[in-house]
Amino acid sequence: MIRVEGLTKNFDDGVAVAGVDLAIARNEFFAILGGSGSGKTTLLRLIAGFERPDRGRILIDGVDMTDAPPHRRPVNMMFQSYALFPHMSVTRNVEFGLRQEGVRGADLRRRTEEALDLVAMRDYAERKPHQLSGGQKQRVALARAIVKRPKVLLLDEPLSALDRKLREQTQLHLTEVQKKTGVTFVVVTHDQDEAMTLASKVAVMNQGRIEQVDTPRALYAQPINRFVAGFIGATNLMPAEASGEGFLGEGVAGFLVAPAALAGAGPFWVSIRPENIAISARNAHLPRSNAENGRVESLSYYGDHTVYFVRAEGGALLRAALFNAAHAAPAFHVGDDVTLAWPPEAVTVLRS
Amino acid sequence: MTRANGGRPSDQAPKNSAFPSAAAPYAWLLAFFMAPLLVSLAISLTHAVDGVPPYSNPLDWRALNLDNYRSILGDNLYVLALWNSVRIAATTSLLCLALGYPMAYAMALEPPHRRHLLLMAIILPFFTSSLIRTFAMINLLKETGLINQALASLGLIDPAHPPSILYTDAAVQIGMVYNYLPFMILPLYANLVKIDWSLAEAARDLGAPPRQAFLRIVLPLSWPGILSGLLLVFIPACGEYVVPTLLGGQNYVMLGTQLANEFFQNRDWPTASAVAILLLAILVAPLLLLQALARRLEAAS
Ligand SMILES: Nc1ncnc2c1ncn2[C@@H]1O[C@H](COP(=O)(O)OP(=O)(O)OP(=O)(O)O)[C@@H](O)[C@H]1O
Ligand SMILES: [Mg+2]
Predict the structure, then answer these.
(1) CA of residue B131 to ligand 1 center, whole Å
(2) Which ipTM score applies to this complex?
(3) For ligand 1, is residue A39 a contact (CB within 6 Å)?
């Protein structure tokens, strides 16, 4: 659907998008995830046509759109600020794009009403934007962007202005609308939960580059580098060296054994997710690998689970997460001597 | 949703303010507008006498009448002055809008640090008195002036018979537009910088070519600036005295020049007052019209 090749955009004060290659399939719910200033908005604005790339190409449905002006591109954008026209009613806002296409009369009315129904805003059709709440504005912006049935809908942080509860509802709503309309959604967000729950594919962006594009599960389970491993979810990340029986991690006494051996020399990094680490009372017979003795240094109680920060004997501070039994207090306390253990599958070895 | 408690305190002015602020503008209006207006109105109903003050006692209400207004409206010179004033003020407002809108628009699109520089460039010439700048224009516009010299050296005009711009309608028009342009640019600029440009981008994104995006989004949102600019130019332009006197010549009549004439040359204060009151009446009409228009636009949008 969308192919982006070697896309680069420099501003006076540095590079915002640095040689991005992307392929987004039809009907996909695609997320671009990255920290503040990583170039997400710039990438979206390049695709929409508001910025001219310094280098690279943009193909939409096989057609080179690199030099097409925004109004000639079969994409619509939902702006972060919603950008609803303040001097027009909800209906007029939604109609705007259709009127530009020359749609008139009964056809115009029907399609506008369909779009308003899709976001359950029919009852507010005659209101002005300033008479709407944040969540309602968001829905109108979605209706306005989708009423033209674009090939691609670009959404820039669509939910960031909403409070948490409304955000969760709206996430469900967005997926629903995407399924119903079959439009390809490209959503930009800095919220990893949002990217993981919404999207079928996620691109992780960092300093103008795409680090990895994958399904949410693969990003979490098989990050290709330290940045992705650390950015998505919490993890225990440490430099490691290859040795005879496995890897030796910095600050960890025992060997770290991964399911598959990596060829070549280091440097390597090892990532172990906290929820994959089992925590138990101090074990007298410590295995030679994938286990570590330590002492609970602090803990955070989250209701459904508790995160323990354990100082390993080798010196590293490891994070282990444990589900709480029904209504039970955390199983261990600060100062307890414990043993941590994890299966080989939990050990992810990274080259960079 | 985000404001579950409904109230939006910032929308309402505080009711029990410690400052008697609301009274101040009214007191100002009363002291410096209504009082002089009433005095002028009273004097306009008297008749001229030789003496100090040069008008009959306005408190002698039996002697008051509308004779001054009758003679003004019956005098062809005044009808011409009235026509010239309204005509020149109207064309000045429209020309200022045509010139000022693109300038204000371009300024609003610049990055902030350059905007301030451009704003200074607009305002700075007005640190010099308008009288001096208008005098300077004489040197540009007269037969042997800089403009004609330049045209002659380019071979575009015959230096033996240069066309005269000075002391014509065109000269007055040029001088007026030059003098009043900032009064158009400033309110337009103030309005345009506040416009959220992502709205224009949204329009482009929804399929509007640049022209449509301007006509349907930016222009409607800049109506308030256009209206205040038109008023700020039209109102003082109607009573303008300096420009027609200097660039229009001896025989160029506008209400402002006639008013000064009656006042200083003829020492006819009652007629001068009547002219002033008439001028005010003329100005109230477009004011009410534009206000009604503004309200209609507000209601329509
Ligand atoms: N119009 C511009 N002029 C100059 N620099 C810009 C412009 N727009 C963006 N930048 C710079 O480009 C970089 C990327 O910005 P961008 O807005 O794409 O980031 P982002 O990932 O959307 O961040 P956020 O999550 O904060 O919205 C930043 O360093 C920013 O300062
Ligand atoms: Mg952004």
Answers:
(1) 50
(2) 0.81
(3) yes
Looking at the fold, whether A245 and A147 belong to one and the same domain comes out as no
* Residue A184 sits in the same domain as residue A303: no
Give the separation between CA A224 and CA A201, rounded to whole angstroms. 15
Mutation target vs A (from B2, B194, B196, B205; most A CBs, 10 A cutoff): B205
The range of the structural domain enclosing residue A210 comes to 2-226
Sequence-distant (≥ 6) Cβ neighbours of residue A40 within 8 angstroms: A32, A33, A34, A156, A188, A189, A190, A205
Residue labelled with tokens 């508001």: A50
- What CATH number is attached to the domain comprising A59? 3.40.50.300
Q: Determine the Cα–Cα distance for residues B267 and A157; give it in Å rounded to an integer.
A: 73
Average pLDDT across chain A, whole number = 89
Three-class SS state of A160: coil
Question: What's at A301, amino acid-wise?
Answer: Y
Same domain, A131 and A26: yes
pLDDT at residue B251 above 80? yes
A192–chain B nearest CA distance, Å:
23
Judge if A297 and A221 occupy the same domain. no
Looking at the structure, tell me whether residues A238 and A147 fall in a common domain.
no
Is there a single domain that holds both residue A191 and residue A257? no
| Alpha-carbon span A336 to A328, nearest angstrom | 17
**What is the tally of structural domains in chain A?**
2
Q: What is the C-alpha to C-alpha distance for residues B4 and A170, in angstroms, rounded to an integer? A: 18
- Angstrom distance (rounded) from CA A28 to CA A62: 16
Question: In the predicted model, what is the mean pLDDT of residues B268-283?
Answer: 89
- Alpha-carbon torsion (A221, A227, A231, A237), positive or negative: positive
Task: Please tell me the distance from the alpha carbon of residue A33 to that of residue A196, in angstroms, as a whole number.
Answer: 9
CA distance A112 to chain B (A): 14
Residue after which a domain boundary falls, among A165, A193, A226: A226
- A250 and A301 in one domain? yes
